[in-house]
Specification:
CATH class: Alpha Beta
CATH superfamily: NAD(P)-binding Rossmann-like Domain
Oligomer: single chain
Strand order of the largest sheet: 3-2-1-4-5-6-7
Largest sheet: 7 strands, parallel
Order of helices and strands: EHEHEHEHEHEHHEHH
Strand content: 5-15%
Number of helices: 9
Bound molecules: 1,4-dihydronicotinamide adenine dinucleotide
Helix content: 40-55%
Structural class: alpha/beta
Radius of gyration: 21 Å
Length: 342
């Protein structure tokens, strides 16, 4: 899809972070911008930001919606048609939340919240919008489907279970949709960022009251750790530009790395990790030890040659606690997975 001007974009989670960056980028292309988000105060603020960015107020539609609620999401889709005269030509599903802790500590609420927003909302939007988009635009004009997933889609982690599982499923769905939409003259792109300068570190604050029972250690201090990491992430508008390039060039996976060699190397490394799961545990341990030794050697050589060794990516604030730990009262969890009291 290359022709954006005068068309309609809907961005889920568009009131903040990556979604707001995407709304700005495609609004600047002359699109009518609809954003959907569960937080009214964030929506009000986003509208101000979009206007300040130069998007005409008449081309902005902010809709309060819980994207995990199918009836509510359907109402949101109806509203877009009512106000802008048709379904979106470009659907970007970006809303997401995260919560980290040992997978064996997870509760049903942890899975239902994270997978509900990160995966189920994407399914809801695809089922609500895609038939409308095909009916309105197939073989008449360009249209496209995009989703914000994560580098986590290619990885697994004992502390990121529900999130990684949701994102892996989202990627897989997008590969299917790209193939499915080809006969209609369309396709799909899945954006897989590593770290974004967004507000996702605060997601736990807005966790719905009916899904609050977490097995993880979550408090203001663990959120402060997450915020410190995300503060070093890519700028949302820059990320939106990278997504635009990927849509224009019909890429299915968009890794936010401008260097094609970097992209290929990243994926080769991740694929190798998956291939290695076919090996025995002893063989995998041997490979991991070799990788660690190579990394230590490289750091030592950098130190000896006077170059700075790689620095940690972020500085954790003094009042922060590590995230990814289990709740104290879960008596089956290994003590190393709980906060070590000093
Ligand atoms: P953000 O917190 O700044 O924005 C996410 C938005 O989704 C928020 O405004 C939130 O209110 C909204 N949202 C959450 N649940 C909702 C629901 N049920 N209904 C409607 N809206 C809802 O976070 P960010 O980082 O911009 O996240 C965007 C996407 O990027 C997510 O899918 C996330 O998983 C993904 N991502 C983020 C990374 C990061 O480092 N921040 C890295 C890789 C992927």
């Amino acid at each position: 899809m290359r022709d954006f001007k005068g068309k309609i974009v809907f961005v889920s989670g568009g009131a903040s972070g990556a979604g707001l960056g995407q709304a700005k980028v495609f609004g600047r292309e002359g699109m009518k911008v609809a954003i959907g988000d569960v937080r009214q105060d964030a929506l009000d603020n986003a509208v101000k930001e979009l206007i300040a960015f130069g998007i005409p107020e008449k081309d902005i539609l902010a809709i309060k919606v819980d994207l995990t609620d199918r009836a509510d999401y359907t109402r949101c889709a109806d509203k877009i048609e009512e106000v802008f005269g048709g379904p979106p030509h470009l659907l970007i599903q970006t809303a997401g939340v995260n919560s980290f802790g040992p997978i064996e500590a997870s509760t049903f609420d942890d899975f239902d919240w994270v997978m509900g927003v990160c995966l189920n909302h994407v399914v809801n939007g695809l089922l609500i919008f895609v038939p409308r988009m095909i009916k309105a635009y197939a073989h008449k004009t360009e249209f496209w489907v995009a989703t914000t997933s994560s580098m986590g889609a290619f990885m697994s982690g004992s502390g990121t279970g529900p999130y990684s599982a949701a994102k892996a499923a989202v990627n897989n769905l997008m590969y299917s949709y790209d193939e499915a939409l080809r006969p209609y003259g369309s396709g799909a792109t899945v954006l897989c960022p590593g770290n974004i300068n967004s507000n996702i570190g605060n997601a736990e604050k807005f966790r719905p009251a009916n899904l609050k029972n977490t097995g993880y250690r979550v408090n203001d201090k663990t959120m402060a750790s997450l915020r410190a990491i995300h503060a070093t992430g890519i700028d949302p508008v820059e990320l939106g530009e990278i997504l635009k390039e990927a849509i224009e060039n019909e890429r299915v996976i968009c890794l936010p790395d401008h260097n094609p060699d970097g992209r290929a190397a990243q994926l080769r490394g991740l694929n190798e990790t998956i291939e290695n799961y076919t090996l025995t545990r002893a063989q995998r341990d041997e490979i991991a030890a070799k990788r660690r030794a190579e990394m230590m050697k490289a750091m030592e050589e950098a130190r000896k040659s006077g170059k700075e060794p790689p620095m940690p990516m972020w500085a954790t604030p003094e009042d922060a606690e590590p995230f990814g730990k289990a709740r104290d009262d879960l008596d089956w969890i290994d003590p190393s997975k709980k906060l070590q009291k000093k």
